[in-house]
Amino acid sequence: VRVRPLTCTETRRGDRRVVHSLGDGTVHVSAARHDATFGFSAVFDAGASQEAVFEGSGMRQLVELAIDGFSCTVFAFGQTGSGKTYTLMGPLGQSEAPAVLGLMQRSFACLLEHSRSHGPGLALSASYLEIYNEQVRDLLSPGPPCALPLRWSKTRGFYAENQLSVDFESLETIVELLLQGSRRRRTSAHALNKHSSRSHALLTIRIRSRAVSTNPAPGTNSPGKQGTLCFVDLAGSERVKDTGSTGELCVEANNINRSLLALGKSWGPPAAAAGPRYGPDVYFVARPPAGHCISLLAKPQGKRTHIPYRDSKLTRLLAHSLGGWGVTLMVACISPSSRCLSETLSTLHYASRARRVTTRP
Fold first, then answer.
1. How far apart are CA 104 and CA 123, in angstroms?
2. Is CATH 3.90.1720.10 correct for 2-212+224-268+291-355?
3. Cα 285–Cα 72–Cα 136 angle in degrees, nearest 5
4. Which residues does 5 contact at the CB level (< 8 Å), separation at least 6?
5. Which candidate, 73, 103, 107, places its Cα nearest to that of 330?
6. What is the pTM of this model?
7. Residues contributing to the annotated binding site for ATP
8. Fewer CB within 10 Å of terminal CB in the chain, N or C?
9. 3-state secondary structure of 187
10. What is the spatial distance between Cα 350 and Cα 275, in angstroms, rounded to a whole number?
């Protein structure tokens, strides 16, 4: 869990700080009628540096596992404006300020450092896509973005057909691909965020290493190890009442919230509320409907029913990361502001459920 600082706007408005890190992976929420403590693998407060998040979250170990042939994923999720994109990417275009580089650029550097030590036996390639209004679009292909069909196969699972994959060998090349794709990603301004992501973005690094054999059989080629490192920047959950979204922005918000609902983070409408009320028209559903992937995956192995990955394109593409062969790091980004209390509590409850999910890598 990462707690961002109060913004200048929140300070001028007189918002109170209601979230405090207690150390040892514990975070405390203290406000009127709400006093709760949550435990996680690690908690980074407002003063934590980007480097501290990289080292303390286990991101370096995740890179090493991907090189060893595992399928690895890192998520950033939370309310719009909570610092997800900053945590993953830092301020884009500020490569001259290494202190603010995000998890992505630091992982690229770590990966290429390992690649150089492996010599010519390691091949790297990258693909970058976004899910905008339930359409999968390639962010690296030239020309205007067009929708890619999702397919399924027994060997690959769900995948985007005709997605461009680009080979790279240097830090400059992969950072340029990241910048190129991020510039094409859909963003808009609203009351809570001047650069709000309007789509979910997935950057996937594929790592292929040729197996070393001292006595290869004549006419045979060993496939070696193949690992992946996927970075997922989820669009932020948002309430239209707070963001002031209308027209196209409102349609985008509905699609964002619908896919996050399928993933497992949601609020029920007043008529279906099953939990305590936190604010006007905002309810946290203590027992989410059975369709939420994270909620079902958090159940003990023997009590799980069918996992509805097909409910959204986001959950289809993340099926292996959520409950399959992968090793997954999830970073919950929250605001300490009293004005964001309901969203913060919802994110923390969601993160608590996600922590109970186990996979078989």
1. 18
2. no
3. 65
4. 46, 47, 336
5. 73
6. 0.81
7. 78-85
8. C
9. strand
10. 14
At residue 276's C-alpha, the angle toward residues 272 and 282, to 5°, is: 65
- Residue 10 — φ and ψ, nearest 5°? -65, -40
d(CA 18, CA 37): 12
Strand-pairing partners, residue 137, are 130, 147
Binding-site residues sit at 78-85
Q: Where are the domains of the chain?
A: 2-212+224-268+291-355
Alpha-carbon distance 343 to 79, whole Å?
A: 6
Q: What are the structure tokens assigned to 22, written together?
A: 């207690």
Give the residue among 325, 326, 347 at the shortest CA–CA distance from 335: 347
pLDDT per residue over 278-322, tens digit each? 333 333 333 333 348 888 888 887 677 788 888 888 888 888 888
- Can you tell me whether residue 21 is helix, strand or coil? strand
pLDDT, mean over the chain = 81
